[in-house]
Amino acid sequence: MLDYLKYCLSPVVLAVAAYGLWLGGNFTWLGLGVLLAILFADAFLEPDLTVRDSRYPWLYDVIVSIAMALGFGVIFFYAHLVGSGHFVTTASAIGAFTTMLLLQFVVTAPALHEMFHRENLFLRWYGRIGQVLIFDPWREITHVVTHHMRVATPDDPDYARRGDTVYGHVARSLYGQVIEAYHLERTMWTKRGRTWWDPRNGWVHRAAMLIVFTSLLLAFGGIKGALLAIAVCLAGPRTMLEVFNYCNHYGLISATPGRFEKRHTWNHLTPFVRILALEITNHAGHHEDSYKPFYELVPDRTGPKQPQFLMCVLLAFVPPLWFLAIKPLLRNWDEQYASPQEREIARAENARAGWHDLNESPVAAPPLNALVA
Amino acid sequence: MLKESEGLPRVAEDAPVASREAKAGYCRISIRGSDRSFEVKKNDLLLLSALAQGVDYPHNCRVGTCGTCKTRLLDGRISPMVDFALSPLSNQQLKDGYILACQAKVRTDLEIEVKLGQHKTLPVCNLPSRIVHWQRLPGDVIDLRLRLEQPLMFGGGQYCTIAESGSFVRRSYSFYDSPPDPSGQGADEVGFLVKRLPGGRFSEWLFGADRSGVKIWIEGPFGTMGIDDFDRDALCVAGGTGLAPILSIVGDRIGRSQQSKFTIVFGVRTAQDVFANRRLNELLQQAPGRIRLVTILSHEPAGSAWPGLRGLVTDALDGALGVDFTQAAAFVCGSLGMVEAVEKKLIGLGVDPGRVHADKFIPTGY
Question: What is the ipTM of this complex?
Answer without folding.
Answer: 0.83
